[in-house]
Specification:
This protein is α/β, with parallel strands linked by helices. The chain is built from six helices and seven strands. A seven-stranded mixed sheet has the order 3-2-1-4-5-6-7, sandwiched between helices. The longest helix has 24 residues, at 168-191. The radius of gyration is 17 Å and the shape is globular.
Length: 194
Amino acid sequence: MPKLTGIKKINIAVFISGNGSNLKSLILDSFKKKSKYEIKLVISNKETAKGLKYAKKFKIKKKIIKYLNKKNAEKTILVELKKNKIDLVCLAGFMKILSNNLIKKFRGKIINIHPSLLPKYKGLNTHQKAINNKEKCSGCTVHYVNAKLDSGKIILQKKVKIFKNDTCDKLTKRVLKQEHLLYPRALKKILSNL
């Protein structure tokens, strides 16, 4: 009979809209021996999201919730989170803004990864904005989600140098590499406090 370690893992849902490369890095990290979390659910607002292949590959439950009506979509999301006993939500390239109602119901339990050094460059096109403004560095931030866009308490950040003749594409790729390392580290940090 296997020995019970007594460690209860935290149940996580990851929300995606696109390629899901951060989802993949979180899944792989969750398989590590000392991981304190398990990804129980992947939610996407797009059935064409390439990242859904990772849910399939690693046999994680997935749910596509179309945002034809935000209120109804979020009602369904809340039902799914409850049904799957989700403790924490990780937004990973989820291109929908959550309502205050959903954020309140999950206060302090939703985190996001953003491709800039917040509070600079909230919203979209962050790398192009950083290049246009001749910044020396860009980077990525994992933060708690609150009612204001990209404004919640910062958990961890990683700087990425911007080179003289950088393009948006080159910078995006370099920052994304760091995101894949930063998101699991940020999760470790907040879960070690539980």
